[in-house]
């Protein structure tokens, strides 16, 4: 059996990673995806963007595998490019040393990663090239945790607490009803 050709991105900052849990916003069954930000001023990034442009040219389609990055707040172009990788299957996730990462570690925005991917050309919807996510190597982890108490604008106040404060101050973990583990 012939071995499938493997393609790797240079290391890049990621955004909107859905690696452990599929994104179901636009597809009921969900899709695993990650977007990488490439700066054409960095040689490795520029080389990768040229590779993507070459794939696009080969596809004879109209849909690029990348788009210009727009600042989400100012709506101004940043000069960088976003490349999106998707898969119907959960990708393998490795740390910098090659160990499988635990399922409960969620890779968040700002993590520095490399992506192993494949590609295919398509003709429907004006044609183009699609980049398929196979695996991710996490080089610098920014773990997604859903935000902290303060991230949501809250401040500590008098009132109900589900934590036994004396045990908490002593460093003893409790269940939600304040009972020690």
Helical proportion, percent range: 10-25%
Following the backbone from N to C, one meets helices and strands in this order, namely: EEEHEEEEEH
What about the largest sheet? 8 strands, mixed
Radius of gyration: 21 Å
**Could you say which overall geometry the principal axes of the C-alpha atoms support?**
elongated
| CATH class designation | Mainly Beta
Number of strands: 8
Q: Structural class given helices, strands, pairing?
A: mainly beta
**Named CATH architecture:** Beta Barrel
Helical stretch tally: 2
Name the average pLDDT. 86
Low-confidence segments, given as residue ranges, are none
CATH H-level superfamily: Nucleic acid-binding proteins
Percent of residues in beta strands: 35-45%
State the distance separating the first and last CA atoms: 53 Å
How many individual domains? 1
**According to CATH, what is the topology?**
OB fold (Dihydrolipoamide Acetyltransferase, E2P)
Q: TL;DR?
A:
Helix content is 12%, strand content 36%.
Task: Characterize the structure shown.
The chain is mainly beta and 181 residues long. It has a single domain (7-140), classed as OB fold (Dihydrolipoamide Acetyltransferase, E2P), CATH 2.40.50.140. It has helices spanning 43-59, 165-169, and strands spanning 7-8, 12-23, 31-38, 66-70, 77-87, 92-95, 112-122, 128-140. It is elongated. The model has no long low-confidence stretch (mean pLDDT 86).
Topology (SSEs and partners):
Elements: E1 7-8, E2 12-23, E3 31-38, H1 43-59, E4 66-70, E5 77-87, E6 92-95, E7 112-122, E8 128-140, H2 165-169
Parallel strand pairs: 6-8
Antiparallel strand pairs: 1-7, 2-3, 2-7, 3-5, 4-5, 7-8
């Amino acid at each position: 059996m012939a071995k499938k050709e493997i393609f790797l991105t240079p290391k890049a900052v990621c955004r909107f990673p859905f690696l452990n849990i599929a994104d179901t916003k636009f597809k009921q069954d969900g899709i695993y995806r990650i977007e990488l930000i490439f700066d054409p001023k960095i040689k490795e990034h520029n080389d990768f963007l040229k590779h993507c442009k070459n794939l696009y040219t080969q596809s004879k389609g109209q849909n690029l595998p990348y788009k210009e990055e727009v600042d989400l707040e100012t709506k101004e172009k940043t000069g960088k490019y976003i490349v999106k990788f998707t898969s119907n299957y959960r990708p393998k996730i490795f740390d910098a040393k090659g160990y499988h990462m635990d399922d409960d570690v969620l890779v968040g925005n700002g993590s520095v990663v490399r992506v192993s991917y494949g590609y295919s050309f398509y003709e429907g919807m004006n044609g183009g090239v699609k980049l398929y996510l196979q695996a991710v190597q996490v080089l610098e982890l920014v773990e997604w945790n859903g935000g902290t108490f303060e991230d949501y604008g809250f401040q500590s106040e008098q009132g109900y607490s589900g934590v036994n404060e004396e045990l908490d101050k002593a460093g003893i973990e409790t269940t939600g009803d304040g009972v020690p583990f």
